[in-house]
Amino acid sequence: MVKQNTGKWFRHGSWWKKLFLNRRYKDVLFRRLFRDKKDLLDLYNALNGSTYTDPGELEVVTLEDVIFMKMKNDLSFIIGSRLNLYEHQSSWNPNMPLRGLLYFARQFEGLISFRGDDLYGGSLVEVPTPVYIIFYNGKGMDRDSRMLYLSDSFSAGRGSGSLECTCEVLNINRGYNGALMEKCRRLWEYSEFSAEIEENIRSGMDRKEAVETAMDSCIEKGILRDILIREKAEVLHMLLTEYDEKKHLKNTYREGMEVGMELGLSKGRQEKLIEQIQKKLSKGKTILEIAEELEETPLVIGQIIRREQEKEEVI
Predict the structure, then answer these.
(1) pLDDT value of residue 1
(2) Every domain of the chain and the residues it spans
(3) Which residues contact 178 (CB under 8 A, 6 or more apart)?
(4) Which end of the chain has the smaller Cβ count within 10 Å, N or C?
């Protein structure tokens, strides 16, 4: 049966996996590598042809699975007067511009509140220029880069409406964006290490053997040598820790049903929860965040989400 993108819950389908799945190993590894300010600043310089040298002045603000780059001394001062949003993706998602819009809106709201700007006054309120870049090393992209547009989501198509948000997708698979890789060694190392793991898996190795073999090979070649030697056990654990999606969904649903029955939630209460959860999902909230804000258990929230998802799947 074909799922149709018609229901209000299914429209948030890009969020379901995010809610229930642990981050894939490529995403986790990417964020681990670039949490170091020096490496992140090197990446910024490589992308922009700039020569910033003091990583101590850089503030890394992580919102969910993305990285914002700011200067720590003043929220109104962003590197190069730009608010930089970097995100990694290992599976294709055409909804990135919409996510970017929500991320930037929250950041601008916080900045304006922090500065006490008057949006209704006669003076222009200045905000940093938003720059959204996605580092992609999944399948199906055969070029160095492409641009995604928010207006592609509009019913009237690209270029319509009064609002636009773009994001540049950079292909960081082995063999792409050579000039960028030469300027940022850590990004090249990440690309090579990921490629080694994928090659090992394709050759028939299981996940653990593929990762361990790639680690040993890359250490010998000087690829991520500093991190892999110093934190080998931690990295291995990080790369191998993933949820079994179907098992997790099944357990969440079963346990949530039990808790829901124990709580004796009324029909009216359930309907109100559904409405509140839907709104929070659209804002990118996680199950734990939703549960905390609505003063419910994660199991109950998971139960409701799963039930509504299943309703949509049979349409």
Answers:
(1) 38
(2) 25-184, 245-313
(3) none
(4) N
